[in-house]
């Protein structure tokens, strides 16, 4: 490392965190020469886990913690919690091959495909999230996503239950490659609104299906082709059918394990990491990135990948996100005493344009002291008083021991990076699942390499020190 600092380096890629940790692993895996610079002393950037708990109080400039929060190092608090959609599928074979504990089940969402593809599963362990709930008329209800759930659900009347079951069966049997499963539905032309009308679903059923099962964050999906909504319903239902309690997984010890796993992968395949190191400047040559200047040293690169905080002039603001981290000493009411759960408040329930998301984890995932819970409420801010907007979610969590409020800008890149070779990720959105972030990773990979990110099998490079262009 000392020699590297003295002579500088020519890298294919320079990375700055935080989903960039995943990309640094992917690039190293494919044989690229990678330098990963992080201004923080820890991995993960804005999505990092904070431990011990005293550091969380310092970060938010809140006095404490008191004696009730003893054993501070037992806490791992995620600043931006996200759940994995899970499904017991062929990935189980990978679990055995990669020597991961059998209790570690996989997301059939896109992130787990990356985990399996890169074998980062060797570094992670997961536990099931115990419940998935939706808010309706001031009360929390379990989300139905199987025939049995539909039969017992208090969200629907008798006739709605029958129609909803028909929709579930249609989605589970649907195969986009087999037109015989379409049942006279053209998935690429029929809108989701028309699909719901075809099954004669009531407005309440449409609401929890679209927002708590298909996980759409706004109403725009209703007027888009229904193929994506069908895929999401099937994914959710298949995931839930294997675990009964919920379709979600969460890493033991928190999401901080995720960037660390990809950092280990990158290092294993020749990646170099410089932590706790400021970035002073990005050096350009004829409009194209040439180097990164850090503490007086130049690190030459062919391409640069970074989050919006490093290149303010190359991003634009498209909204604001509010997150409130809450420390609790009790499970959330009406969740069957669940040690972990997700609650979604659909936008129409509060006359909003975007949903409110609540994620709850606890000591069961080794992220808090015994008997303690961490709940995070998040949404896209729509007014000048974001804290008032999340109040309905906070009321579901009462009593709250301590709150930590953050409001951040939602930033997106101004350009695709093809000319400057600077590739900028999006800020994290308000959702508490990984699907949108995975779309960003796939989009970045496509822009950077000119090819699609494929998961057809391991593509580990034979050399750990390749300097392939």
UniProtKB/TrEMBL annotation:
Cite a single Pfam family from the UniProt record: GDI
Name the GO terms of the biological process aspect: protein transport; small GTPase-mediated signal transduction; vesicle-mediated transport
SUPFAM superfamilies assigned to the protein according to its UniProt record, in alphabetical order? FAD/NAD(P)-binding domain
Query: GO: which molecular function terms?
Result: GTPase activator activity; Rab GDP-dissociation inhibitor activity
Where it sits in the cell: the answer is: Cytoplasm; Golgi apparatus, trans-Golgi network
Coiled-coil stretches are: none
Q: Which UniProt keywords apply?
A: Cytoplasm, Golgi apparatus, GTPase activation
Q: Which domain of life is it from?
A: Eukaryota
Q: Can you list the GO cellular component terms from the UniProt entry?
A: Golgi apparatus
Q: Which InterPro entries match?
A: FAD/NAD-bd_sf (IPR036188), GDP_dissociation_inhibitor (IPR018203), RabGDI (IPR000806)
What PANTHER family does the entry give?
A: RAB GDP DISSOCIATION INHIBITOR ALPHA, RAB GDP-DISSOCIATION INHIBITOR
Q: What does this protein do?
A: Regulates the GDP/GTP exchange reaction of most Rab proteins by inhibiting the dissociation of GDP from them, and the subsequent binding of GTP to them. Promotes the dissociation of GDP-bound Rab proteins from the membrane and inhibits their activation. Promotes the dissociation of RAB1A, RAB3A, RAB5A and RAB10 from membranes. Regulates the GDP/GTP exchange reaction of most RAB proteins by inhibiting the dissociation of GDP from them, and the subsequent binding of GTP.
The entry sums up its family as follows: Belongs to the Rab GDI family.
Q: What name goes with this protein?
A: Rab GDP dissociation inhibitor
Q: Which organism is it from?
A: Mastacembelus armatus
Taxonomic lineage is: Eukaryota, Metazoa, Chordata, Craniata, Vertebrata
